[in-house]
Amino acid sequence: MSTENEGTAVPPAPSAPPVPVDAPASAPGAVPQGHAPSAGATGQAAGSTSPAGGAPSAPGAPQPEGAPTAQLPPVPPGHPGASPAAEAGWPPPPPATPAYTGGGGAGGAWGASYQDPAPKPKRGRGGLVAAVIVAALVAGGVGGGIGYQLARNDDSTGSTTVSAATSGGDVKHTTGSIANVAASALPSTVTIEAESTSGRGGTGTGFVFDTQGHIVTNNHVVADAVDGGKLTATFPNGKKYDAEIIGHAQGYDVAVIKLKNAPSDLKPLPLGDSDKVAVGDSTIAIGAPFGLSNTVTTGIISAKNRPVASSDGSATSRASYMNALQTDASINPGNSGGPLLDASGAVIGINSAIQSTNGGGLGGSGQSGSIGLGFAIPINQAKYVAQQLIKTGKPVYAKIGASVSLQDSTNGAKITDQGVGGSAAVESGGPADKAGLKPGDVITKLDNRVIDSGPTLIGEIWTHQPGDKVTVTYERDGKSHTVELTLGSRVGDS
């Protein structure tokens, strides 16, 4: 199965809640400072560089067959250019098979292949606007229960009409209603447009992180503008600002940009505690699906701790790993980087990926859309990453110092016989080495979290910070062993 970045793939598997991390503006009950995500191992050094042992494939947790998932690609503003050749190095490249569809062999990267989304719709023109109008009429005509009154029509036809007791603008929304949450949060969200020097780019979403003008979004939203491209952020009131990239983390799929000449009245969104989120809690997603800015959708938390490996499927795409919050709130390409809110309006996640049934779809654009399976980076992890990026401009990843296979598996994460580029599979003097781990060992648990594959291990390690002590359960020669190790660190994506 693959997840699409607003983007690409999501494997389900048991997992332990991510370790809380610190961040600036926090909602009541927000996570205390000092805990954060960490980096992990891939078919390369666990929590370190590129895959070892051939083309990796996704974890083997049961998933619907033939249902690709992918990072939600940004919605292109124009005609994209050709993608350069893939590069070696870390983070590991997406597996060579469609992720989580239970197959092996060569194929697309972590699920559905990337396809260029359709150009942004022009306002006031075309079929899209007409469709929206029709939908509005239908919704307005069948909505019930607001005290409709039957009114008599005196014309000769003898027909009757139905009138609402009050007009929509007069309806009073209770505190905490979706309407009130949306009204409060929308002014603190932005539509981001990123364009490379060659003209390739797309549209995504972000939200105000602090009063200094920092905006948090996905790495894949701003990737096109990393090397000298153009970046802008537009608020719902129409005010548009140029922006610059402060830091970006490919492995975490988190980026921080900063508004140039930021206004003095910025209102950061409050940050919640994603560890305290429960399955069934209400969710509200804000974004710009298919370029339709300031769109609000609702749903619930469908699951927690979904191991997700996602990418946009392009030639240069590198996989991102997370223990995601799963939601059925409608999320589509363009929602990437937008906030996933709880019922109080606090941010609990960053919308990043969707599972789709195929790579085709809406309006013949070739861009897949929501089927009710969306995935968000837990805000506790994102807070830590964003703070690191603001502080140093570079991400910090935790690692165990061992290369693990990314091949499809349900038995655990196997330490490979050889590391990246012929290096040792177990880093000399690293955490795994000090704990006595060896090539061929199969890691089956990290603390209380069941590990079914290499990507699952990576996502779980990255919920920790370097220096955290973890308990590793592994199998060797048919026997189970348990050791404690202290996670190491690596700075940067390469």
Automatic annotation (TrEMBL):
Keywords of this entry: Hydrolase, Membrane, Protease, Transmembrane, Transmembrane helix
Signal sequence, renumbered to the chain: none
The keyword Protease is annotated on this UniProt entry: yes
Region entry Disordered, spans: 1-104
Lineage top rank: taxon: Bacteria
Annotated Low complexity bias: 22-70, 80-89
PDZ domain location: 404-487
Compositionally biased tracts (Pro residues): 11-21
TM annotation in the entry: 128-151
Coiled coil: none
Protein name as annotated: Trypsin-like peptidase domain-containing protein
